[in-house]
Amino acid sequence: SGSGLPLMVQRTLAKQVSLCECVGKGRYGEVWRGSWYADSVAVKIFFSRDEASWRRETEIYSTVLLRHENILAYIGSDMTSRGSCTQLWLITHFHPLGSLYEHLNRSTLTRHQMMAICLSTINGLLHLHTEIHGTQGKPAIAHRDIKTKNILMKVNGECCIADLGLAVTRSQLSAGLHHNPRQGTKRYMSPEMLDQSINTGCLESFLKCDVYAAALVLWEVCGRVAPAREYRPPYYDLAAPDPSFDDMRKIVCVDAARPEPPDDPHPTMVGMSQLMRECWHQNASVRLPALRIKKTLLKLAAADNS
Ligand code: ADE
To answer: Which residue out of 21, 27, 46, 94 has the highest number of ligand 1 atoms within 8 Å of its CB and is therefore the one to mutate?
Structure first.
């Protein structure tokens, strides 16, 4: 399996984990800090109505070797029957700083910190999007729910991407095998998702949606470079806290509105503004692929350090 442990051992592991404190609650369920002997682990407890996300995430971590410093590391999954109730656990590494969303709400950033966050997030996305051939290979994977709440902050200043509950591969799409009733987050949905013009039979279409959502993440992060205003979610000035599909369609497709890029004249910030515009473009086919975003960020970072 993806954790490198046989199922019997994983089962045993889940029984040895004790839940310590709840660190997150949402529509998905809850995340707890758990302890396994001396180690902290994160335990995501899914609502049983979202069993499809637990299955999808468990399946992808178990069939694809996804060990990468910018992707949340998997330890194991567990399904336990408790009378009439099914308990679904996903056990991963624990990151004490929590999500990028929480981090941005708490802290302003130096340009250097901003760049470490953006580069590592894009590096994780690039790994997901890249097909690798060979015995240690992996298929190209579209995430489909990129947002700051699904990115975790590591203590070294880099990020890792979490929540693979909606992730899809090409073979799944062609087999018509992605029947998760859950949708991505409306605020981060691309124009082609919102006007339903997307070709849902094609993995590349979903990779472009990830790039659109990643551009909104870059905007959120850049908005916290000191001296900064307070944290704002994308479209904070145009969309209500829990916008409907139609609210977002009007904003993103009809009015073609986008967030206001930073107006800091520093060359790095000018470069970041241009990069986000290229990545949230209305026309999905001209958005940059993750590898091109990474190369642009590396160039901006090198110029800032020289
Ligand atoms: N919130 C969601 N997942 C988490 C994790 N793995 N570590 C810390 N906080 C989290």
So the answer is: 94
pTM, 2 dp: 0.95
Contact 224, 104 (CB under 8 A): yes
Calculate how far, in angstroms, residue 285's C-alpha sits from the geometric centre of ligand 1. 34
- Exposed, middle or buried by CB within 10 Å (0-12, 13-18, 19+), for 44? buried
Q: What percent of the chain shows pLDDT beyond 90?
A: 82
Identify the burial level of 150 via C-beta atoms within 10 angstroms of its C-beta, where 0-12 means exposed, 13-18 middle and 19 or more buried: buried
CB 141 within 8 A of CB 37: no
* Cis-peptide, bond into residue 227, ω within 30° of zero: yes
Gap between the Cα atoms of 67 and 2, Å rounded = 9
pLDDT tens-digit map of 49-104: 999 999 999 999 988 989 999 999 999 999 887 778 888 999 999 999 999 999 99
Which residue among the candidates 145, 210, 246, 264 is catalytic per the annotation?
145
Residues in contact with ligand 1 (CB, 6 Å cut-off): 23-24, 31, 42, 72, 92, 94-95, 98-99, 152, 162
pLDDT at residue 81 in the model = 79
Positive or negative, the CA dihedral 218, 224, 230, 231 is positive
Nearest to 206 by CA among 183, 236, 239: 183
Cα–Cα distance for residue pair 172/87, rounded to 1 Å: 26
Q: Which residues contact 72 (CB under 8 A, 6 or more apart)?
A: 92, 93, 95, 152, 160, 161, 162
